[in-house]
Every structure is written in structure tokens, then in C-alpha cells.
Write a structure and sequence with these properties.
The chain is mostly helical and 107 residues long. InterPro entries: His_PPase_superfam (IPR029033).
Amino acid sequence: KLLRSPGKECPRFRALMTETFESAPYQRFLRAHQSFVEALSNHTGYPVSRLVGKKIWRVYDTLTCQRIHNLTLPRWATLDVLDTLRRIASFEVTYSILGHKRKEKAR
């Protein structure tokens, strides 16, 4: 059997993830990319609050899959945008796992 993330079924895990994305290091990173996230919100239709900590990775993954399969990307999805998305998504995933209270999240 594979281990699975507790996700929605565990209120404590959800609270820890909220703390993670409200933590000072994450907020500093987010402020440094605020204008990018706001532009991404305009392009995708996701509110900033849904992009942060949740949908940025999905947007990056979707666009990357489209690019790999030679599908037409939206005009705004330039290589620079994809690179910035990759960096933000990588930070979010890494920080959510290895950052704030990682030992408690791993229980």
C-alpha cells in the first residue's frame, strides 16, 4: 500500500498547511512575485487567493504538458513566464513539504 497525503480528511494537516502559507518566509517569497501572481490571476481567471499555495503548480503543470505535447499555449505563456512559474511552483511544493513544521506534517 502506498502512503497518501492526509489532505482534506485531516483538519490538523489543513491547519498546518494554512500556517505554512501564512509563514514569514513564504510571505516574503510571495511579495517578491506579487506582480507576477496578479498577472497570472488575470490570465487564468483564478483569484490570487486560489493561486497561492494551490493552483500555481496546476497552472504550471498544465502548460508544461501542453508544451510537451506540442499543443498551442496561450500567448501570455512565454518561456519566461513558464520559467517563473516553474520557480514559484518548485518553491511552493518544496517549502510546503520541507519548510514549516515538516515533522508534524509527516506524522
